[in-house]
Amino acid sequence: MVLESKLRPGEAMIRVEGVTKFYFGEPVLRDINLEVPAGSNLGLIGPGGSGKSLLLKIVAGLVEPDRGRVFVDGHDIQALSITDLAALRFKIGMLFQNYALFDFMNVSENIAFPLRQAGGFEEDAIQKRVKEQLELVGLPGIGHQYANELSGGMKKRVSFCRAVITEPPILFYDDPTAGLDPVTSSKIFIHLRRMQQRGGTTAITITHDIEGLKDICDAFAMMERGRLIFHGSRDAIEDCEIKLVRQFWEGVSDD
Amino acid sequence: MSAVASSEPTTPTDADEEPSTGGARALVEGLLFGVGDPIVYIGQTLRGFADVFRRTLIFILQGKIRWGEVVQQCHEIGNRSVIFIMFTLGFLGMILVFQAGFQAQRITGDLRPLGGLFLQVLLREFAPTITALMIATRVGTGIAAEIGSMVVTEQVDAMRMNAAPPVQYLIVPRFIAGTAMMIALVAIAIVVCFIAGMFTALYGFNVNPRTFVNFSFVTYADLMICMSKALAYGMAIPIVAGHTGLATHGGSAGVGWATTQSVVNCSLTVVVLDFLLSGLSYVFLSM
Q1: Is the pLDDT assigned to residue A145 strictly greater than 70?
Q2: From the CB of residue A217, how many other CB atoms can be counted at a distance below 10 Å?
Q3: Engineering a disulfide at A88: which of A3, A182, B162, B285 sits with its beta carbon 3.0 to 4.6 angstroms away?
Q4: Which residues does B129 contact at the CB level (< 8 Å), separation at least 6?
Q5: What is the 3-state secondary structure (H, E, C) of A13-66?
Q6: ∠ at Cα B174 (B169, A111), nearest 5°?
Q7: If we measure between CA atoms, which residue out of B232, B271, B132, B274 comes closest to residue B282?
């Protein structure tokens, strides 16, 4: 059911080539070129409305670009059939900015959803993994509750559990710590680091928590008004002289 | 790796546009866009309906049906609409018989065929079409709003990311439940409407119920028309409302747009199907 990798040796796991997107005639993404090598974590930063979440959705194949191509695991995702795209998505976990928890399912069913879709898991094993995930994010015993009974922070953690429960090789996190208290944010980042250290996971993480990002990312990219204004390693971003990048990295403003 | 700046976008600018050649051209262009845009929109919408319908049928033929959800939707669409339909069709039955009786009394004075003719009109037209229009407002808006809010809260994206096709998960159960429940609701509507009409005839025009209950005008063709209309409307409303919900964009304003659009689209679909099926029955059943 999972789509076989077409990755050639040395090829990046995620490759974005000249992606441009217009909304109502206005460009919201302009000629984006990006590479994320297998096993690395790219931190995507930038002001609100700069197009980070849209770019992530284009990479995930949820939104079609007007120009350019996106390759994931060696597959040109615009060229994939609906069936093949669905099969490729078994390799991808995604944490959405707005939680995206199914309101007609309870917490346990939400978290178990990717496992049930993937198939091949015994019900006992599914329940065990759901319980483990909930304990990991500090939410034991809430499996029977529905999304509308949870706070924003709880929803975020449940959404995180759903994204990682299948331990997919590719992970997209859209603001994983937004609305969380510092302790829980720290727990989430520890978990992200652990997944990174385990190896093999390729990730793109969007967050405004630059300090947390510094610990888990190998490379960084910064967007502004739909343009990619920086893409490079940690050393490169520390030495970067672009004003906005420096401000973001150091957390200082003009004033 | 090093810092990179992406190249400038190649987007159309004012400078790229040709200079205007006068008001006449602008008028023609305006006219063409004014006529063309709605045609393109209607074409795209119809293609969207056909695509959702095709995919729904494929999932059903593949047996990818969530029966638990179908039962839940039967309750939502059927059980929760019964009182609404009974009230609406009950009052409609009283109004129709009163008006028909009043006119018959003025023109012929013979009220004996009132019940039989009323039943025929009820089967051919009023029961399925009025029930469908009511369901389009109550159920169609509900489907569009529910799916629309799932789109704007990224739940539909989350389904896609988990290889769960939204049409299979959201529309197939509503399609099956909508089709089955529409037939049941139309049957209930006929009974309620006819009984309401019977009492109106009794108390308004002193027509004996034994005279009113007259099946001599009704044929199997009338029943066939009634059920084929109920079937068509039952299939169309979830498809149209579901497609409208999936086409939602933006935030809560988008959900509002989807809800309004759903009423318009579903009502238009019911009226157009009514016309087509009535025409087909005239051609093939010589009615």
Answers
A1: yes
A2: 25
A3: A3
A4: B229, B233, B270, B271, B274
A5: CEEEEEEEEEECCEEEEEEEEEEECCCCEEEEECCCCCCHHHHHHHHCCCCCCC
A6: 30
A7: B274
Under DSSP, is residue B60 helix (H, G, I), strand (E, B) or coil?
A: helix
Q: With a CB-CB cutoff of 8 Å, which residues 147-206 of chain B face chain A?
A: 150, 153-155, 157-165
Beta-sheet strand order (sheet of A75-76):
A26-36, A14-23, A67-72, A75-76
For chain B, give the mean pLDDT: 89
Mean pLDDT (whole number) for B41-50 = 91
Checking if the pLDDT of B1 tops 70, the result is no
pLDDT band at A73 (very low <50, low <70, confident <90, very high): very high
pLDDT given at position A13: 94
CB contact at 8 A, A1 and A90? yes
A109: pLDDT strictly greater than 50: yes
Q: What's the pLDDT tens digit per position in B60-107? A: 999 999 999 999 999 999 999 999 999 999 999 999 999 999 999 889
Confirm or reject contact between A46 and chain B (CB < 8 A): no
- The answer to whether residue A10 scores a pLDDT higher than 90 is no
The ipTM estimated for the assembled molecules is 0.90
Task: Give the closest-approach CA distance of A102 to chain B in angstroms.
Answer: 6
Q: Which long-range contacts (CB under 8 A, 24 or more apart) does A27-30 make?
A: A27/A226, A27/B9, A27/B11, A28/A54, A28/A226, A29/A54, A29/A55, A29/A58, A29/A65, A29/A226, A30/A226, A30/A227, A30/B6, A30/B8, A30/B9
Per the CB < 8 Å rule, is A57 touching B1?
no
| Residue B9 pLDDT > 50 | no
